[in-house]
Specification:
heterodimer, A: mainly alpha, 1 helix, B: Rossmann fold, 2 domains, 11 helices, about 35% helix
Chain lengths: ~50, ~375
């Protein structure tokens, strides 16, 4: 949970929006990294074998 | 390509592909691929034809209906007519015993069936089986006899806990199955209880958190249900457990928000608070009346503004801790003042009349959050 102590509703919601944007960004990065490493592994295997 | 997931309206389990039974109730054999890898069948069909996946599913449902087959879920529960042709949204009303969940469900369904969403171009119908349960278990008590609905068993819930009411909402291009169920907050205390009674909360699409004045020390004296066990400790524990359940169901880490879940927080029995000095009474009203003169976007802006004032009001009534838990643990909540009956119960145990106030507002917000209604005006600014 994130700290929203003392925030008004609007401030807390803006805080949530920022958090959701960061979450989406991290998720996208993770996906790109996964695709990159899986492709690299496949290319490596194809070259070695 | 989007693979559909259905929710069984009898047991609330998720499934990908419906099965079919013939007139004698004997299951029709389907291929191995269809049983174990439905995505392969869907992919194959979408590659073979130019139709979209959705049309392919509809065509399959229509072909089965023409052969006299009826769809059932994998556990064998029959599905209502046309159920598989629409997407399904589950709406759980979460609140502690005595907070007014059953009364709110009854008032909400009654209002919807009277055509309150018609000005927005949305039609509401009810599945036949749900309609008879609604009439006998809920409507007869509250609307016809104007008496209190019998309390739900604290832990095991009642019929509506396991067998939600199935509504069909149609409007414009989209139509959906809306499953409304009652999730007792006491079931959220222990993981074992959640697994036994409320496993579907892990994958619910929308949550209406029902709080009664009893959940706030400053408002406790106004609640008529004095012997109720609802109290501030239980309410905070429930909200904390609920946010954990929602997050865990989506494999999110601590500190992350389940943005796919729509949340509306309702303060029920708000008619008892109208006399208070700092009560934000300008936000205690009917959405349908407001919509006669204003747009949906203006209504959502008003709800956002109102949420600000309601949160401040509840914080002052010693609800700071609870508000903080809601604002940090549940995704994009909006706050609503609701009275499902409009009046206190009289000495003879009956309500003088049933005049619902504000019951539709939370549902409109949830429908916008899940993409059924336009959501302009709902974003934080």
């Amino acid at each position: 949970m994130t700290s929203t102590g003392g925030m008004t509703f609007t401030q807390a919601m803006l805080h949530q929006e920022q958090q959701i944007r960061r979450q989406r960004y991290r998720r996208k990065l993770r996906r790109i990294a996964t695709v990159f490493f899986v492709t690299a592994a496949l290319v490596f295997l194809a070259l070695v074998l | 390509m989007r693979l559909r997931r259905y929710v069984c309206p009898s047991g609330l389990e998720l499934f990908r592909v419906p099965r079919y039974v013939n007139a004698e109730g004997t299951p029709v054999q389907v291929s191995w691929a269809e049983r174990h890898a439905p995505w392969m069948v869907t992919l194959g069909e979408s590659l073979r034809s130019t139709d979209s996946v959705v049309r392919s599913r509809e065509a399959r449902a229509a072909a089965a209906a023409a052969q006299g087959l009826s769809p059932v879920c994998p556990a064998g529960h029959p599905l209502p007519d046309g159920y598989t042709e629409r997407r399904t949204v589950t709406l759980g009303l979460v609140g502690l015993t005595g907070s007014g969940k059953s009364t709110l469900i009854t008032s909400l369904v009654e209002t919807l069936l009277r055509g309150v969403l018609a000005p927005l171009g949305v039609t509401v119908t009810m599945d036949e089986e749900s309609a008879s349960r609604y009439q006998v278990d809920l409507r007869r008590h509250l609307i016809v006899d104007r008496e209190r609905i019998p309390p739900t068993y604290v832990l095991t819930g009642n019929d509506i806990t396991k067998h939600p009411l199935v509504l069909r909402l149609g409007g414009g291009q989209d139509s959906l199955n809306l499953l409304i169920y009652d999730a007792s907050g006491e079931q959220l205390y222990r993981r074992r209880d959640i697994a036994e009674f409320n496993p579907y909360l892990y994958h619910t699409s929308a949550i209406m958190l029902v709080l009664s004045p009893n959940a706030f020390p400053g408002l406790e004296h106004l609640d008529d249900d004095t012997q109720s066990e609802v109290g501030i400790a239980q309410a905070t524990q429930m909200v904390s457990a609920l946010s954990d359940v929602v997050r865990r169901g989506r494999r999110l880490r601590r500190g992350e928000l389940a943005e796919e879940v729509a949340v509306a927080v309702t303060l029920t029995k708000a008619d008892k608070l109208v006399g208070m000095d700092d009560f934000p009474s300008q936000y205690f009203g009917d959405a349908e009346r407001f919509l006669l003169e204003h747009s949906l976007e203006e209504l959502f802006e008003l709800i956002q503004e109102g949420s600000d004032d309601i949160v401040e009001f509840l914080k002052k009534e010693d609800g700071e801790n609870l508000m903080m838990l809601i604002l940090s643990g549940l995704p994009r909540p909006t706050f609503h003042l609701v009275s499902a009956t409009g009046h206190d119960v009289a000495m003879d145990g009956h309500y003088p009349s049933i005049d619902q106030v504000g019951v539709v507002g939370p549902l409109l917000t949830l429908l916008a959050r899940i993409g059924f209604l336009p959501s302009e005006g709902l974003m934080a600014r």
